């Protein structure tokens, strides 16, 4: 099963939280923060927050979002009726504001991938 990869930035985390809140309005905000942090492998939101802000200022870090870790943390917090596949589907539909790379980097990557013409 593939996990979703996302640029680790404050705006992407906020977008993720907003989408999850709209899909699961009964989740408390603080519990959602904890579950999101867990989905990235952090033990708590307090542990994720400084890393998120420090890294996003100096690097373009792409991380895997594990929806099963998110579901497990929500179960620990008392939310039993979250279907993993529904959650996964919701996450895959989110349009994040910060993609892995900008247009210039995308063009450079495509140029590297483009094969040399046979008649060149």
Overview in brief:
The chain is mainly alpha-helical and 120 residues long. It contains six helices and two strands; from the N terminus they run E-H-H-H-E-H-H-H. Helix content is 57%, strand content 7%.
Helical fraction equals 55-70%
Q: Based on CA inertia axes, which overall geometry fits?
A: elongated
Please give the order of strands in the largest beta sheet.
1-2
Characterize the largest beta sheet: strand count, sense, and whether it forms a barrel. 2 strands, antiparallel
Distinct helical segment count: 6
Q: Based on helices, strands and strand pairing, what is the structural class? A: mainly alpha
Total E-strand runs: 2
| Radius of gyration, in angstroms, nearest whole number | 17 Å
Structure description:
The protein is mostly helical. It has helices at residues 10-23, 29-39, 45-58, 67-76, 84-92, 103-113; strands at 4-7, 62-65. Helix content is 57%, strand content 7%. Strands 1-2 form a two-stranded antiparallel ribbon. α2 (29-39) packs across α4. The radius of gyration is 17 Å and the shape is elongated. The relative contact order is 0.18.
């Amino acid at each position: 099963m593939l996990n979703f990869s996302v640029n680790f930035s404050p705006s992407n985390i906020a977008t993720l939280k907003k989408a999850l809140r709209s899909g699961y309005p009964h989740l408390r905000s603080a519990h959602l923060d904890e579950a999101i942090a867990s989905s990235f492998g952090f033990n708590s939101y307090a542990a994720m927050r400084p890393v998120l802000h420090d890294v996003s200022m100096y690097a373009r870090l792409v991380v895997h979002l594990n929806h099963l870790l998110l579901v497990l943390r929500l179960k620990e917090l008392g939310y039993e009726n979250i279907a993993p596949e529904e959650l996964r589907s919701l996450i895959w539909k989110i349009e994040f504001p910060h993609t892995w790379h900008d247009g210039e980097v995308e063009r450079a990557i495509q140029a590297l991938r483009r094969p040399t013409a046979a008649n060149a």
